[in-house]
């Protein structure tokens, strides 16, 4: 798919999602939803936001195992990059791939191999989706204990099976040199790539195979990425408790797993706007949550996304400006006597 077409689809998805979001809030009443949010209060919303640090840390740890053991960045550097990448994916119309591109750029700016970082991110995306499928399966098991009949469970199960098939195909394609094959296919259909770019695609394939060859590290990564999904349940459980609608951990697992599954399916919509709110409303209805409470829960998620996302975008821009400023000072002072580029040590 051409980039302009992808951008167009992303903007269409954003406008459609925004329309659904406005319709839902308007239909169920902004006053009732605001009243439900007011129960949690500013302190409660801050606590909900703080709970998100736990899955973010687990994701960073899981990602670290996918780097070469001799060149693994420090935890705080990975957490910093994870935070900024998530902010980009959540708030910008980048179809859930812009965050990874920004992470590659950040690490190359601090002196790491872009190919190695890209390989770690390809594996990270693959394993994250695999862990999500496992999480959705857990939610599906919980769903069958709350809902009779297969009206909802069967479509979810079919979607999970399709996801498993796609992840399996993607993994096998990586093992067989996916990016080198794509580069050659691009040239076959009239594209123009330099020899350096073709070699780079082949090197990326080799790096990815080396990541998967470290089976112990892959298993540890899957463990931490799975833990990240489970830790996200605490945010839902805490939010509903603060909103005055306490649920069990099993019910929180059901809500979070189904919402994350729908959010993943709506990857073309920036921030899954509208789709995420609809998911909270549907699953909340299954658990007999009032509509205003379900939408208030959805809005606490939006508050958290903004609370993390806006500072994350600003941190990214600050880093880029600082890096550029350092280059300019180096050019003026010469021979490294002035400013310097940000390095791993400065982070």
Strand residues, percent: under 5%
**What shape does the CA trace take?**
globular
Distance between the termini: 37 Å
Low-confidence stretches: 336-340
Biggest sheet statistics: none
Radius of gyration based on Cα positions:
22 Å
The count of β-strands is 0
Count the DSSP helices. Answer: 13
Overall pLDDT: 82
Structural class assignment: mainly alpha
Amount of helix: over 70%
Note the run of SSEs as H and E: HHHHHHHHHHHHH
- For the record, the count of structural domains works out to 1
Task: Give descriptors for this structure.
about 350 residues; 13 helices; mainly alpha
Note the topology:
Blueprint: H1 3-28, H2 30-51, H3 53-64, H4 75-91, H5 98-109, H6 114-146, H7 153-175, H8 178-188, H9 195-213, H10 215-242, H11 249-265, H12 275-286, H13 291-333
Helix pairs in contact: 2-10, 2-13, 3-4, 3-10, 4-5, 4-13, 5-6, 6-7, 6-9, 6-10, 6-11, 8-9, 10-11, 11-12, 12-13
Any overview of this molecule?
The structure is a single chain. The chain is mainly alpha-helical. The chain has one domain. Helix content is 79%, strand content 0%. It is globular.
Overview in brief:
By secondary structure, the protein is mainly α. It has helices at residues 3-28, 30-51, 53-64, 75-91, 98-109, 114-146, 153-175, 178-188, 195-213, 215-242, 249-265, 275-286, 291-333.
């Amino acid at each position: 798919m051409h980039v302009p077409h992808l951008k167009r689809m992303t903007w269409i998805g954003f406008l459609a999602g925004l329309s659904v979001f406005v319709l839902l809030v308007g239909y169920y009443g902004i006053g009732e939803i605001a009243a439900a949010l007011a129960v949690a209060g500013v302190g409660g919303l801050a606590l909900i936001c703080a709970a998100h640090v736990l899955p973010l840390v687990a994701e960073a740890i899981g990602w670290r195992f996918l780097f070469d053991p001799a060149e693994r960045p420090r935890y705080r550097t990975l957490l910093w990059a994870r935070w900024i990448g998530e902010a980009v994916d959540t708030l910008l119309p980048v179809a859930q791939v812009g965050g990874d591109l920004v992470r590659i750029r950040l690490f190359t700016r601090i002196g790491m191999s872009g190919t190695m970082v890209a390989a770690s991110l390809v594996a990270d995306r693959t394993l994250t989706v695999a862990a999500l499928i496992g999480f959705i399966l857990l939610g599906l098991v919980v769903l069958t204990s709350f809902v009779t009949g297969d009206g909802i469970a069967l479509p979810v199960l079919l979607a999970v099976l399709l996801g498993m098939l796609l992840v399996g195909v993607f993994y096998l394609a990586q093992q067989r040199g996916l990016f080198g094959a794509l580069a050659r296919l691009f040239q076959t259909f009239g594209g123009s790539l330099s020899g350096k770019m073709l070699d780079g695609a082949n090197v990326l394939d080799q790096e990815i195979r080396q990541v998967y060859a470290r089976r112990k590290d892959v298993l540890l990564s899957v463990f931490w990425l799975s833990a990240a999904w489970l830790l996200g349940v605490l945010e839902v459980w805490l939010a509903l408790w603060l909103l005055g609608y306490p649920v069990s951990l099993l019910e929180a697992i059901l809500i979070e797993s189904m919402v994350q599954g729908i959010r993943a399916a709506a990857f073309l919509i920036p921030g899954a706007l509208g789709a995420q709110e609809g998911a909270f409303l549907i699953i909340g209805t299954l658990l007999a949550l009032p509509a205003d409470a379900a939408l208030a829960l959805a809005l606490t998620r939006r508050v958290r996304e903004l609370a993390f996302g806006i500072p994350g975008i600003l941190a990214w821009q600050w880093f880029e400006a600082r890096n550029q400023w350092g280059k300019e000072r180096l050019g003026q002072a010469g021979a490294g006597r002035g400013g310097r580029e940000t390095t791993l040590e400065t982070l």
